[in-house]
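Handoff note, outgoing to incoming analyst
You'll be picking up this chain. Sequence as last confirmed:
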Amino acid sequence: MERIERIHALHRILSAARYPVTLQRLQDELECSRATVYRDLAYLRDQLMAPVTGSGEGGFRYDPEENDRFELPGLWLSSDELHSLLAAQQVMKHSGGGVLSNALAPLQHRIEKLLDDHAGGRRVPVERVRVVAHRTRRLDETAFRHVATAVLDRRQLTFEYRARSTDLHTRRTVSPQRLTHYRDNWYLDAWDHDREALRSFAVDRITAARALDEVARDVPDEELDRQLASSYGIFSGTPKGWATILFSAKAARWVADEHWHSQQRGRFLPDGRYELKVPFSSGRELLMDVMHYGSDAEITEPPVLREQARALLSLAISNYEREPG
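Most recent structure output, in case you need it:
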């Protein structure tokens, strides 16, 4: 019996019991160990706020004065689980009649059944929950297929790349390592043979992609993470230092709960402000995210990043010092 079934069964037993239920009876009916019963009782009491009373010696029951008022929550999915199911459902809805549409159709019904099962048998109106894509960029589907195929087949890949920051066109030959879906867009982590280094490429900037016959060079996962995930943002690279951002007391209320980087360090200051430190290599994406907070955020270290922020803000202000158009 899975945990969700045990919790529902335990709830039914305790809510119907007029007298304390012995530990042995709970073990028998739930088909589990003594330790599992205790864990499930603790979960009911501490996490779901069920009015569980009693002990292992005298048995367990719900407090009679609270029994009628307590109900199990209707949906038994975590936020991550619900997001994953709904995201998968939306992907299938928008598959556009491709080659997988018929094959994926049964999964749509399976997802709906999973949601119903985790809501105690009630139909879950999934149309009441939205997963909204944000700033998704259009990409060349043919190029994407070649990129994805090269990643999965472990073959080298050649393509035209137009850098967003410089608008420079180059021809690249790479050993694809992995595809990354980040902020609703796709990126390719790859070993660049011409530059003899790891690089990340925005797939929407890739055209004329073609898989080669040569086997791709494999870079160990530890090296990929060290080079590409150790600093802030998707185009991170090896950290060059730590950035310190100071947030106002107003912004601190939500920044303190945000995940910026796996190695971030944060602390509240005596005046209510929040100090956040993150490792960074290229400041481009970090600056963009800090600017999102406007006057509620200030980069204090390092001086070079602070100066870049000041220059960007000065340029932004200059746009408003002249007539529009």
